[in-house]
Amino acid sequence: MTNIIIAGAVGLILSMLGTPLAIRLFSRRGYGQEIREEGPSGHYDKRGTPTMGGTVIVLASLLAYGGSHLATLTPPTVSGLLVLFLMTGLGAVGFLDDFIKIYKQRSLGLRSGAKALGQLVVGAIFAVLVTRQPNVYGITPAETRLSFLRDFGPSSIGIVGFTIWVLVMIVGFSNAVNLTDGLDGLASGATGVVLAAYVLIGNWQLRNNCIDQLGPNCYWVRDPLDLAVVAAAVLGALIGFLWWNAPPAKIFMGDTGSLALGGVLAGLAIATRTQLLLIILAGLCVIITLSVIIQVGFFKMTGKRVFRMAPLQHHFELKGWAETTIVVRFWLIAMLCAALGLGLFYVEWMPKA
């Protein structure tokens, strides 16, 4: 538990103090956000706001994780390092995308194929490594199986099928957070509540692991405490960043932050054996992604639009909702989704009538 507190506190302090330094540095270098011409007109006022703030989130998270282990004289675990590798690798892809936008002064960075390739390469390395490295009890960070509250079903999908499934999760959730990052503070708050949920999940899995107390509801998770430490480190860094990213934002996280955050959510879900539960925990991001899929699919079939604009948050902007109203209401939806996911996670521990 001490590791969790230290990681969250260090991440918060580093991000809170580091973000204004990044704002000044990026402003001097002209690393400002470009705005899509087809976007809501109110967004033009945001042109030139420093972006690539996700670098602060990633660096603060890594330092907080390392600092917590240094302070408690405990070694990092394979599960924790793999999730952080996934976050950092996808953050690097996002950083390249952001840098191209700034360098070429346009709203689009990497071509979609190159961006997807970067996500797939990082994801494939993670997918292969996460099924290896067993501990002394033979437990690996993940099994080649699906999971909801724990692993279920046969492991016959094999490493190839599992890798494909993991890649779908990683690309899907990294892009989902990216789509959610359309208004000041929206993605930060939405992913923050999911990370808070994973702090609780990791801590509960530690207290009910099958090594210490074998029982019908125990968890075969390799490093539950360290996964909670990872979640706490990123959550602390995210809260510190949100202080400056809340409306009106002084800095944007950019693809550097959104891809990294989507990656850490997918990594935590895979390593805690709660893959399908993440769809509920991160329900807001899923809903926003579905709005884009529905909009594009319906337009291609009928030539008409379901929403005034996709992603969904821009639909409400065009309906006249204030940006802060949308952000706060969407945060509430994100909290309800996370609460529902946690309720499902704990339901099997409820006393039977």
What can you see in these coordinates?
By secondary structure, the chain is mainly α. The protein has one domain (2-277). It is built from twelve helices and two strands; from the N terminus they run ααααββαααααααα. A two-stranded antiparallel sheet has the order 1-2. α7 runs antiparallel to α8. The longest helix has 28 residues, at 2-29. It starts with a helix and ends in a 7-residue tail after the last helix. 49% of the residues are buried. Pathway: Cell wall biogenesis; peptidoglycan biosynthesis. Belongs to the glycosyltransferase 4 family. MraY subfamily. One of its GO terms (molecular function) is metal ion binding.
Biggest sheet record:
2 strands, antiparallel
Distance between the termini: 32 Å
Q: What helical percentage do the residues reach?
A: 55-70%
Series of secondary-structure elements, N-terminal to C-terminal: HHHHEEHHHHHHHH
Strand order of the largest sheet: 1-2
Mean pLDDT level: 91
Instruction: State the total count of DSSP E strands.
Output: 2
Beta-strand percent range = under 5%
Number of domains: 1
Rg value: 20 Å
Structural class, please?
mainly alpha
Poorly predicted ranges: none
How many helices? The count is 12
Shape, per Cα inertia axes: globular
Kindly summarize this structure in a few lines.
The chain has helices at 2-29, 54-72, 78-104, 112-129, 158-180, 186-207, 224-245, 254-271, 277-281, 283-302, 312-318, 323-346, and strands spanning 146-147, 151-152. By secondary structure, the chain is mostly helical.
